[in-house]
Amino acid sequence: MKLHSMLFGLIALGLTPFAAAQQPIVIKFSHVVATETPKGKAAEFFKKRAEELTGGKVKVEVYPNSQLYKDKEEMEALQLGAVQMLAPSLAKFGPLGVKEFEVFDLPFIFDGYADLHKVTKGPIGAGILKKLDSKGIIGLAFWDNGFKSFSANTPIRTPADLKAKKLRIQSSKVLEEQMRSIGALPQVMAFSEAYQALQTGVVDGTENPHSNMYTQKMHEVQKHMAVTDHGYLGYAVIVNKKFWDGLPADVRGQLDTAMKESTEYANQIAREENDNSLDGIRKSGKTQVYVPTADERLAFKRVMVPVHKKMEGRIGRELIDAIYKETAFDPSKL
């Protein structure tokens, strides 16, 4: 009788059992950057692999460039189930109450990708992602963007060159403290508004990986850039927990595989794209690119690393020390 009732219900809705079974599971994947960026390309790669591996059971709709939601809106949209998947920058999780993610914003805590991946691909990273469960969110993976450079309309050789400059940052208490450490004035602003703010002089400069700067054409309204690699910008790919837990086990397994493949692709393309974008910035002739000497970079490091200590109460000293141990970083030797 139950089966007959179910069939009658489907027919009443205008669906045959076959048609109902064929309805794909839709994943709306929203992000705020251009399709040509590492994150944009990785999202498209995930769409392709998810649809292939599930044999069309899943349809992934990717919405780039803040088409659906801006920086400040997308997390709430995910929690409400308006979208199923995001890849926010790691700074976005502090306001959500998971301050451990802010460890990734600490200046000079990673001396390159090898150190970084010891954390993001290891138990420390897995432990940080797990803390999202209580927020109705599941963390699937970390995706790289790259290491950041400073830009301004005046030459940047020393920390003093950025003193009193209004520098755009994303919302992050750690990044605010980082900018104050070099005497700059942090200006919190949505990523989608940064180009116009630089163009009109509302802000004097910013910090970004090269791919973000190039694809958003920020280099066209900035005269100088210093390749300081002072901070890391990465993303956590996250899904609505209720949605993810409700998926059929086989589909969830296939999506896990698609995400693993996409993460390898994302991290590889991030390095390539940032190198290519730096090339593009140089060739444009609009921004003078400066690579600091080892001593000049050390001067930035000495001024900015004390931010780690200041942020211990917010992020957690144990977590910072665990990363120091994992990467063999000793701030006392600077």
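Above is the first protein from milestone M3; the second protein from the same milestone is given next.
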Amino acid sequence: MTPNWPVPGLDPVRRLRVLAAGISGAALAERVIPLPFDRLWGIVSDLEHELGTFEVDMRDITLREVDGRLEAHARGRLGFRARFDVQLEPGWCWMQSRFLMIGIAAVPVPNGTLVAATGGFRLPGRAALFPIGVRRANAHALARLARRAAQP
């Protein structure tokens, strides 16, 4: 690499925007939640206890480390089960199973925290989501997250 070349620096929300732009059918919802980043991300990143409070289709989730990577076993409200590979770091959560994708990113902004979400049912073997209802479902998840964040 040439030492004078610029190195792109993408914050987590920009990173999710780029990722969603490359996935057919993905739609990104964004919302500013008037809560400090650390407090809001504490809710988002507590997947086992909090994910089901804003992702309506998730009922139970159990995390475990397997060979140095994070894995989640989830059960949906209708009883469906999925195993997710999980990337979880400050401001970034990407969960992908054979049939589902969930992406959540957050960055601090002057009035609180900007949160972005994408996800839905995916086509195995392809970077594609079924586009029906994806944008609305993600917007509703962020609205539920905002309500959850407003609780003490």
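Note on the second protein: Strands lie at 29-33, 58-66, 69-76, 81-89, 92-96, 100-109, 112-121.
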